[in-house]
Task: inverse folding
């Protein structure tokens, strides 16, 4: 009896040990566990080095991929190399291999069983240069975005100009769309954009009934730099159709916004401290200056305006308005009892800006120059060893500076109602540069034994 019981104990122990071995055997498998996939491709049952080889093949294929980023009829080619896009092979291999190998043995067994029954998917992981992709997105943004255009009245023809819907690129959505395009092997990725509605429509124009011209002013940019002209057009589109309510202050900088390439502005020379220097948005001041004259001729109070350091060719002396975003602004107030509208348009080489009201302006406005004083250019002498002693040469004739006062004269039916000082401006002269010779003449050299 005792022998029989001993045999039972031994057999039970053997069965238990066999069961335990059978249970824990998967914990020591030299292969990826069954049910594990990479982006839907089964890798269970493969050795770690075999999975690494598969990932390397995918990696080389991914590095060769090209896509076309598209909006409408605009196409932008992009390669994986352009943004340093690469598969994160090590991260995927580690996740594939370590699944079912982390944690306590019972947790591992549970995970192994779940993978066998339900599957375990490792997503395709990639890495790329975010800064490079962001720069491409900025380029696409500048190419496809369009500022909404308000409905307005043409100051030249009197016709209503229909509003135009704007377009804005969703930059935050563009990045994952591009990356997903590479992962999926898509040939074309469509840029995500959203429409931007204009503030003023044709219906608003009809309802507001703002159609009487008040102050209108025109300047010319004939023969101007192409980028400068493009900047003028961008600024015109931004101010055109702006409605200013009674008591509201118009700010040029608030409406036009930062002068950035991403917002449609182009590099063009700007006048800074009396010198033309490279910048973005050159030409904007012609728009602000033209609008300034229209506001003055509409008898509206100007609360901020700054003159340039030197005279300009497109407006009379004392009637310019320089603007620098965040620093110098041009502002005026609608001090009337009804809304007014800014209209601006470009035709050929002319910029025309006007202010419209509901009723005809019942007065005339004249701008008069007074107390103009010319400041001769200072002489600046420079020694020049290419000229002989006693010789002089004018390198730069210089330009005079000016002091000038602008008056606004307001009349009603020929009767003067008001005469007021609008501005007192100073314009810096440009130095006259004279070269003075320092070289000894030939006869003097001989006399000195030269």
Result:
């Amino acid at each position: 009896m005792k022998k029989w019981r001993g045999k039972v104990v031994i057999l039970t122990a053997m069965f238990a040990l066999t069961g335990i071995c059978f249970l824990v055997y998967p914990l020591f498998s030299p292969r990826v566990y069954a049910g594990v996939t990479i982006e839907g491709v089964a890798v269970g049952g493969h050795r770690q080095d075999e999975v690494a080889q598969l990932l390397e093949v995918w990696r080389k294929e991914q590095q060769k991929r090209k896509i076309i980023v598209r909006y409408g009829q605009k196409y932008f080619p992009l390669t994986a190399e352009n943004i340093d896009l690469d598969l994160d092979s090590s991260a995927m291999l580690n996740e594939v291999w370590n699944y079912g190998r982390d944690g306590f043995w019972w947790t591992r067994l549970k995970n192994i069983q779940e993978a066998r029954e339900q599957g375990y998917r490792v997503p395709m992981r990639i890495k790329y240069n975010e800064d490079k992709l962001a720069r491409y997105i900025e380029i696409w943004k500048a190419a496809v975005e369009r500022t909404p255009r308000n409905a307005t009245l043409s100051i030249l023809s009197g016709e209503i100009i229909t509003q135009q819907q704007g377009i804005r690129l969703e930059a935050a959505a563009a990045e994952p769309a591009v990356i997903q395009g590479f992962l999926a092997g898509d040939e074309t990725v469509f840029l995500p954009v959203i429409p931007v509605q204009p503030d003023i429509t044709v219906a608003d124009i009809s309802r507001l009934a703002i159609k009487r011209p008040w102050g209108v002013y025109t300047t010319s940019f004939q023969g101007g730099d192409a980028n400068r002209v493009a900047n003028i057009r961008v600024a015109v589109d931004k101010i055109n159709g702006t409605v200013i309510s009674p008591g509201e202050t118009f700010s040029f900088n608030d409406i036009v916004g930062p002068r950035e390439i991403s917002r449609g502005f182009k590099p063009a020379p700007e006048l800074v401290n009396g010198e033309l220097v490279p910048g973005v948005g050159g030409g904007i001041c012609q728009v602000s200056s033209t609008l300034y004259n229209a506001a003055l001729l509409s008898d509206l109070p100007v609360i901020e305006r700054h003159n340039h350091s030197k005279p300009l060719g497109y407006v009379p002396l004392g009637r310019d308005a320089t603007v620098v975003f965040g620093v110098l602004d041009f502002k005026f107030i609608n001090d009337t009892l009804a809304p007014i509208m800014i209209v601006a348009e470009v035709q050929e080489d002319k910029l025309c800006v006007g202010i419209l009201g509901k009723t005809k302006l019942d007065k005339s406005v004249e701008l008069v120059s007074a107390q103009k004083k010319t400041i001769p250019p200072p002489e600046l002498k420079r020694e020049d060893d290419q000229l002989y002693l006693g010789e002089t040469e004018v390198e730069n004739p210089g330009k005079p500076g000016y002091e000038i006062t602008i008056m606004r004269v307001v009349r009603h039916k020929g009767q003067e109602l008001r005469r007021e000082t609008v501005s007192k401006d100073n314009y810096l002269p440009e130095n006259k540069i004279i070269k003075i010779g320092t070289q000894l003449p030939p006869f003097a050299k001989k006399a000195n034994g030269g």
In short: The chain has eleven helices and 27 strands.
